[in-house]
Amino acid sequence: MMRARGLAFWLLLLPPVLWLGLLLIVPHVEIAILSFSERVGPRLYRFGFANYLAFLTEPLYWRTFARTAVMSIAVTAITLVVAFPVAFYIAKAARGVSKAVLFLLCLLPFWASELVRTLGWMILLRETGLVSALLQATGLSAGPVELLYNDGAVIVGLVYGGLLFMVVPLVNALDSLDFSLIEAGFDLGGSRIDVLRRVVIPHAMPGIVAGSIVVFMLTAGNFVTAALLGGKNGLWFTEQIYAQFIVRFNWPQGAAFGLLLLLLSSAIVWIGLKLTGQGFGETMRRS
Amino acid sequence: MGRPTRSWKLYVACFYIFLFAPLAVVAAFAFNASQYPSPPWLGFTLEWFAGNGAVFGRPGVLRDGPMLASLLASVKVAIPVAALAVALGTANAFLLERHEFPGKALLANMMLWPLVIPGVILGISILAFSSRVANGLEDLFDADLDFLRPGLPLVVAGQLSFILTIATLVISARLRRFDRALEEAARDLGAGPWRTLRTVTLPYLRPAMVGAGLVAFLMSFENFNTTLILVGSEPPLPVYMYGQMREGASPALNAVSLVLMLGTAAVATLFALVSRKAD
Q: Mind listing the pLDDT tens digit for each residue in B73-85?
């Protein structure tokens, strides 16, 4: 192990090269090639842009794509707003044991499978579900209310799924914020809003970026929540990819969709990092 | 701002209710003596766990053949994924922490890429590539290569593609904190490099390796997106549950979810104990 290029080195280099080569790089090259091929006959393909043209000309495709992008940004923003007061509470207001317990409680639900969490929301939001029953029992509603199968349900489910990935980086970032800075902000005549905007948020920025990137990526790539809580109205882009690949067996079209989704999520990650001048490696390790 | 106001405390309380409400209702309605997991409460029953199907026309999860088969399929995937993630993750850790070579920063960076690639895309790219290889080999050698077709071996490969990143990060982090003087001491005492590795370095890494293995097992068990694309005729539990949830609601799903949550809690507790020992 002392010599820099011993046998050990080459043996150790083999697994990552195989892993990244065979499971990551080459498969993505494969779908890139596939996405530029057009079917001209049985098992006969040629180079062309037909799949991308179909994406642009078929409203269902590009609308679903745009919808996924816009809703994912909205979900990320809502998740940030919902999580911030809780993260700030855990980092700065809670003390000792209650701090540790509150933090741990945040992590717990996310050890449960995504399917289990979605099942919970279906039971709560269904027409015959618990929320509907509560609304009727308290007289707020005269009859059963269907809260499932709409965008609201999808957003609730996606925000819920993203919370952990927002709270943890936020708590980590806010933990190092010195209380005297906040006090100094007030002493200098700042209002709560001023202090939040000019002291707390800048300090939390690394956590905000890390959390937002991960939440956006998980949301845009989500399948279960949109399909089960949105029903027929769910229309998520991952479902289009699945439909092309598995249901219609139109792999070139599905590959083009996959590449577009990858482009979208990479673009958002890149923009997020550039806007705040953070490195990819440190941000990923932080989350 | 330091002293929490009442409304802030109330908000935090509501947040935790929001966090646990879905899990609480899943658990509670597993015991409701009803055809459907919805109110009203018709009494307590264990029929959805151990029943033989005489009462509700559907057996409890412990006697539900397809459900148990999917559970077994999940275990058949999760064990090789966890074992491979630990073995290869440890090797990666040694490569990244003990060797300097051109392109190392790029390689370390590439190892993080799987975390920002949506699972569905990992799935379709591996499916497309493995099918191309299988078709090519079949044309060349006239051989049937089932493991390159959708099925559990391909699911293992697909899940490993991103779970290996997590294992590598966890094990590298511990190897970085290792005091090399301990290895030198072992060498001075006459141990060869192999024996030093086996008796000094690996025992130090063990908590991280066990922890990474448990996390890998859980991530594999709960993975849906990549698995959905690569699955063949044997659906693992999440894929099977998804199919059932599309068909309609049944407290059997609540029961299996509760079993799953308890199993996860057991593994997570084990993980917490192991990582406490590591620090």
A: 999 999 999 999 9
Residues of chain A above pLDDT 70, percent: 94
Cβ-nearest to B4 among A93, A116, A128:
A93
**B73 inside domain:** yes
Distances in Å between the alpha carbon of B110 and those of A24, B103, B117, B161?
9, 10, 12, 12
Contact B118 A111 (CB under 8 A): no
Of the partner residues B1, B88, B245, the one whose CB lies closest to the CB of residue A15: B88
Residue A75 lies in a domain: yes
At residue A2 the predicted structure's pLDDT band, cuts being 50, 70 and 90, is very low
Q: Is the pLDDT of residue B163 over 60?
A: yes
- Write out residues 59-118 of B within 8 Å (CB-CB) of A: 88, 91-92, 94-95, 98-101, 107-118
Q: Determine the structural domain holding residue A98 and report its residue range.
A: 53-286
Q: Which of A115, A157, A121 is nearest to B256 (CA)?
A: A115
Render pLDDT for A90-119 as a digit per residue (tens, 0 to 9): 988 888 888 888 988 888 888 888 999 999
Q: Is B129 on the interface with A (CB under 8 A)?
A: yes
Q: Which residue segment(s) compose the domain that B120 sits in?
A: 65-248
Q: Look up the CATH number of the domain holding residue A258.
A: 1.10.3720.10
What pLDDT, on the 0 to 100 scale, is given for residue B65? 85
What ipTM did this prediction achieve?
0.88
- Mean pLDDT along residues B92-117: 91
Q: Give the count of domains, chain A.
A: 1
Domain count for chain B: 1
Look at residues B147, B177, B3 and name the one whose alpha carbon lies nearest to residue B80. Answer: B147
Kindly report which listed range (A14-18, A206-210, B49-53, B161-165) carries the lowest average pLDDT score.
B49-53
Q: Say what the pLDDT of residue A79 is.
A: 97
B136 touches chain A (CB under 8 A): no
Q: What is the pLDDT of residues B194-252, one digit of tens each?
A: 888 988 999 999 999 999 999 999 999 999 999 999 998 899 999 999 999 988 878 88
Domain of B244, CATH number, reads 1.10.3720.10
Chain A, nearest residue to B271 by Cα:
A111
| B60 belongs to a structural domain | no
Closest Cβ opposite residue B225 in set A106, A109, A223? A223
CA dist list (Å): A151 to A111, A158, A236, B120, B225: 26, 10, 11, 22, 21
Chain A neighbors of B266, CB-CB under 8 A = none
The verdict on residue A270 lying in a domain is yes
Give, for A46, the enclosing helix (H) or strand (E): strand A44-47
Contact B242, B70 (CB under 8 A): no
Q: Which A residues, 183 through 212, put their C-beta within 8 Å of a C-beta on chain B? A: 183, 186, 192, 195-196
Within a domain: residue A16? no
- Cβ-nearest to B125 among A28, A179, A220: A28
Q: Which of the residue ranges A23-37, A142-156, B87-101 would you say has the lowest mean pLDDT?
A: A142-156
Interface membership of B191 toward A (CB under 8 Å): no
